[in-house]
Write a structure and sequence with these properties.
Elements (H helix, E strand, L loop, with lengths): L1 H20 L3 H19 L37 H11 L6 E5 L2 E6 L2 H9 L10 H5 L13 H14 L2 H6 L1 H22 L2 E2 H18 L5 H19 L17 H25 L11 H6 L9 H32 L1 H14 L15 H13 L10 E2 L4 E3 L2 E3 L4 E4 L1 H5 L43 H18 E5 L7 E3 L3 E3 L4 E6 L1
Parallel strand pairs: 2-7
Antiparallel strand pairs: 1-2, 3-11, 4-7, 5-6, 8-11, 9-10
This protein binds protoporphyrin IX containing FE.
GO molecular function: heme binding; iron ion binding; monooxygenase activity; oxidoreductase activity, acting on paired donors, with incorporation or reduction of molecular oxygen
Cofactor: heme
Protein name: Cytochrome P450
């Protein structure tokens, strides 16, 4: 109402002044700015900016950048958002908690492990903010975006007990080897044909195949696998694309066509995944037929736990979507580091030789003995976390106190894991790549210690973490056992934040069989 009166008053002045003094346009603009300035000062020049304009929302004055009118710090986000947010927080002394605006969305972010624990483990932040493209792509019926409640807990239980239990992860070892054999063959072929290996494509295809067969079993056929690959790629683009409706209350509009494309993709996914499910049901599929893929697991659930047809599509589609890029991206980072640090590569190869030898392949059961290899993976997760802002944020379902700050319900909360893992007060020489820092003492990375929690923490911690890490360990060990990896051009570690934090330019290298 106040805004309405101010705007009417401003219009009245303009109507009176313009004809009377016969003013030029620039002058009118200047006058407008002057008369609107109290409005801007009131509603925009507050800690955190535009979205925090109501003083009741920030009574404890969480510090934060003012940003642009209406846009907040949206223009500063982009492919280095994690670095920019870390720099702003540090310059304002707001590493514990910082407020900012993304359009009309209120956000708080922490770059501190203790506050991160409070946010991720507290019950107040067990929902995700609604991203329209994610909802349209059915993820609100899957684990990642389902509101915290009975249905979401049911999905998490199924995932923990049946899909990602230690027994299920182990039962997929054979598949991991099979896919890795295939990748090793492709590396050799590329090397002999082009004298250079571009690992990204090989890892992406391997990772996609691994997750598709974990979800649907083998024998789906190359055509369907390829089609699923295109769908995942399109899904990544759509979720990563900027959508005005996520930051402003204008959900009906679709300036960029994202909503239209999401609808089209969802129809395709429903059609294809739906057909696969129906075919499996016709074949009487279930674990009793000896299959251990996720679809068989879902079809074999007791009646009271069973999911509807559409919910099953959403869950299986999400698994393929989430399980593909994270593993491939992390492995590309690790291999870039191995190519760059030849001494570290030689040291881990010695470790593999000592514990496994060269006459058989590394197995899952060898990994606990490969302490240095595990340390390398941890060090890469520290320096290049695939989710530097922990992928998807959390949403406060009710008012909550974080340390000395009041955070109102409806606020989006983020953790800047990248800032934590590069903080010199937490990590000695954080910019040095030094796996040895993890060999001296056991350091858990599954979410109990927030100094390094690349899979998140608390109720919404990544359910696929054991499968993801088992895949990365095994493939890394086998790639290093098979080849010596050498640079072909200078290794470029520039990064780019899309849905995950990727190497900006694909790694190019050479290999020599060992
Ligand atoms: C290197 C591999 C991976 C990394 C670094 C990773 C990282 C993450 C992170 C940071 C989150 C957010 C956690 C939070 O909010 O606290 C997450 C959530 C999730 N991840 Fe992963 N992930 C990986 C592999 C996988 C795999 C293989 C799958 C499934 C096949 C998977 C499925 C999911 C799902 C469904 C969620 C949403 C959980 C929820 O909201 O309840 N992830 N992941």
């Amino acid at each position: 109402m106040k805004i309405f009166f101010r705007a009417s008053f401003f219009l009245l002045i303009i109507c009176f002044v313009v004809p009377f003094y016969n003013l030029t346009l620039p002058l009118i603009f200047f006058l407008s700015l002057i008369s609107l300035s109290p409005f801007f000062i009131n509603t925009w020049l507050v800690p955190g900016g535009f979205a925090w304009r109501n003083p009741n929302l920030n009574p404890s004055r969480i510090p934060g950048p003012v940003g642009w009118p209406f846009l907040g710090i949206l223009p500063q986000m982009g492919s280095h958002a994690h670095r920019k947010l870390a720099a702003i927080a540090s310059s304002m002394g707001a590493t514990r908690l910082m407020a900012y605006s993304l359009g009309s969305t209120r956000v708080v972010i922490t770059s501190h492990p203790e506050t991160a624990k409070e946010i991720l483990s507290g019950s107040a932040f067990s929902n995700r903010p609604i991203k329209e493209s994610a909802n349209l792509l059915m993820f609100e019926r899957a684990i990642g975006f389902a509101p915290s409640g009975k249905y979401w807990r049911h999905l998490r239980r199924i995932a923990a007990n049946h899909m990602f239990s230690p027994r299920s992860v182990l039962s997929l070892e054979c598949l991991r080897h099979h896919v890795c054999d295939n990748m090793i063959e492709k590396v050799s072929k590329e090397m002999s044909e082009k004298r250079i290996v571009e690992l990204r494509g090989i890892l992406q295809k391997g990772s996609l195949r691994n997750i598709i067969e974990s979800v649907f079993g083998s024998g789906l056929g190359l055509k369907i696998e390829e089609e699923l690959g295109f769908m995942v790629k399109e899904g990544y683009e759509l979720i990563g694309e900027f959508h005005w409706g996520d930051y402003f209350p204008i959900r009906v509009l679709d300036f960029t066509g994202v909503k239209r494309r999401c609808h089209r993709l969802t129809l395709k996914v429903k059609d294809l995944v739906g057909q696969v499910i129906e075919e499996r049901i016709r074949d009487g599929g279930g674990i009793k037929n000896g299959q251990n893929d996720f679809l068989s697991v879902l079809l074999s659930l007791p009646q009271e736990d069973k999911l509807t047809h559409d919910d099953m599509i959403a869950v299986l589609w999400e698994m393929i979507f989430r399980g593909t890029d994270t593993v491939a991206i992390l492995l590309e980072w690790i291999m870039a580091r191995m190519v760059l640090h030849q001494d570290i590569q030689a040291k881990v190869q010695d470790e593999i030789k000592e514990h496994v030898g060269n006459h058989r392949h590394v197995k899952d059961s060898d990994i606990p003995k490969l302490v240095y290899l595990q340390a390398i993976v941890k060090e890469v997760l520290r320096m290049h976390p695939p989710g530097p802002l922990l992928s998807w944020a959390r949403l406060a379902t009710h008012d909550v106190q974080i340390g000395k700050f009041f955070v109102p319900a409806g606020t989006t909360a983020m953790v800047n894991m990248w800032a934590i893992t590069h903080d010199p007060s937490i990590w000695k020489n954080p910019w040095d790549f030094k796996p040895e820092r993890f060999t001296e003492e056991e350091f858990p990375i599954m979410g109990s210690d927030l100094r390094l929690a690349p899979f998140g923490s608390g109720r919404r911690v990544c359910p696929g973490k054991s499968l993801g890490i088992a895949t990365v360990h095994l493939w890394l060990a086998r790639l290093l056992q098979q080849y010596k990896w050498l640079p072909s051009t200078k290794v470029d570690l520039s990064e780019c934040l899309k849905l995950s934090l990727e190497l900006k330019r694909p790694l190019k290298c050479r290999v020599i069989a060992r």
